[in-house]
Amino acid sequence: MNLPPHLSYRAQIERIIAGGRVALATASLFGVWWDPAEPVRAIAMTYALSGVYLAYALTLLGLVWERPRGTRLPLVTHVGDIVFVAVLQYLTLGPSSPFFLYFVFSIFCAALRWNWKGILLTAGATLASYLLMTAWISRMLGPSEFEGDRFIIRCVYLIVVAAILAYLNHHHQRLRVDLERLARWPQLKTLALPEALAQILSHAATIVDAAHVVVIWENGEEPYTLLARWPPQGTLISKHPPDTLRFSLDDESSDLDEAAFVAAGPSSATSTLLVPSERGSFAAARTSLHPEVRNLLEGDGLASASFRTEHVTGRAFFTGLASPISEIVPLAVVVAREIGLSLNQLYAAERLKEIAAKEERIRVARDLHDGILQSLTGIRLELRAAAGELDDAPTVRDRLCAIEGALAIEQRELRIFISAVGPDRSSFRDAGSLARQLEAMRKRIALEWNMPVTIRCATETLPAEIENAVPFMVHEAVVNALKHGHPSRVAVTVESNNGTLRIVVADDGRGFQFRGRQDHQALTQRQLGPKSLLDRVAALGGEVHIESSDSGSSVEMILAVNSSIA
């Protein structure tokens, strides 16, 4: 999008240059008038050129002040300035001319208009013009008129000015790139903590030009310290006991808790820590890094800054720095603050999700209690009444009583589920062990389907998420076998060993629509088997394998039960 003329960065530059050109032309014309003896040769020509140049400068000032011009005008005026300076100096004592300042003005114009390449090209053009003009005019000057010292000093002056301006321009461009990178800080609204933090640390390392980033932080609501390292070494995030990974050795009097600090040397982690002052100088810290933190750092150069937000407090360490240490401190402070704000945003988003999920659980619990649970009660009463009227048909009466008993068990399980998702979760199911939950499920299935089901359970301690999911997976696999395979028996085996949970549901029915063994990938790609069961197991990071034949089928579910932060 094109900005209005008064807001254009290029237009502002051209106005500054045009104003400087007018001031310089006015000063040169005044100098010729003040001391007409200085330009000994061609005084009239000098007056005329200075007047023409002043009129030219005023015309350009009016043009660029009205509105910005095309991209060719700066280049044309730039070349015109250099040519005019060469002619004016030739007419006014050549290498000793008082109008040498015009050459420096051209280099400053290049610094404002272009990058360091434009500065060096302009410096080369002005130096070449100065050398050619000096070589030409020196033949007409006597030995006493040619000032060799001034000639050499002015050549060196052009080179030094060009080098300094090129460095400043390069530094300015680097700061501009850093600001653009900060402006493109990752947006993390839809990402989980590991994925979001990977983007944050990668982007932070790019901004600071660091090879390694270490972030240590605490969340006031969590009883542990978190550590993240980039590039990842194993898992990106790891948990540590509280009050570990302390920053300094001296807990009572530490000047490292809040302040930024740096270190230089081949081994920055063991070098003396330097704390910057408000005046830009550095003072040695009164303490040093704690060994636990020092062992995490690698690479030359260290810059570190702390952050403190509503939910998180911590510190970021940047090592393996490519830029000078003294220049990194302000940038490290800003980047560390952005890391803290991003972590705070992620934690706030997680809390909002938890609140929303809790409200949804409460709504679902109320709907279940007021809807399905009451309907089941009515169905049980109808079945009990119907069974009481069938004294002459004991088989049918017993079957109806069994169905009513199965509904009673389902009601109890539904109440337990409602307690688990409701606002007061203290009454969540306490079935004791997974084996007891599976046994209760077996009895319900036997009553509902009038089918013998055997369950063998031999498991170690399982994570709560997996232990709560196992009964649902087994129930779905068994009911699928009863509905579609029409078996005479179903056998279930649940066992865990060496961090792996294995669930096998086998039957002697008609099997699935395919024959042979299919792994999880084949089942998913070919859309075979029970889709909801495949999705449920995959959500827990597991796999399903099914073997089907004319004499029955076997559904095997395998899950890893070792939990860790990824």
Describe the fold and architecture.
With 566 residues, the chain is of the alpha+beta class. It folds into 3 domains: 5-181, no CATH class; 193-348, GAF domain (Beta-Lactamase), CATH 3.30.450; 450-566, Histidine kinase-like ATPase, C-terminal domain (Heat Shock Protein 90), CATH 3.30.565. Helix content is 54%, strand content 16%. It contains 15 helices and 14 strands. It has helices at 9-34, 43-66, 72-91, 101-113, 116-137, 148-183, 193-208, 291-294, 325-370, 372-388, 394-421, 434-449, 464-485, 520-526, 531-539; strands at residues 210-219, 225-233, 235-240, 261-263, 274-276, 282-284, 302-308, 312-321, 453-458, 490-497, 500-507, 516-518, 543-549, 552-560. Strands 3-2-1-8-7-4 form a 6-stranded antiparallel β-sheet. The protein has a 6-stranded mixed β-sheet with strand order 9-10-11-14-13-12. It has a two-stranded antiparallel ribbon with strand order 5-6. Helix 13 links the parallel strand 9 (453-458) and strand 10. Helix 1 (9-34) runs antiparallel to helix 4, helix 4 runs antiparallel to helix 5 and helix 10 runs antiparallel to helix 11 (394-421).
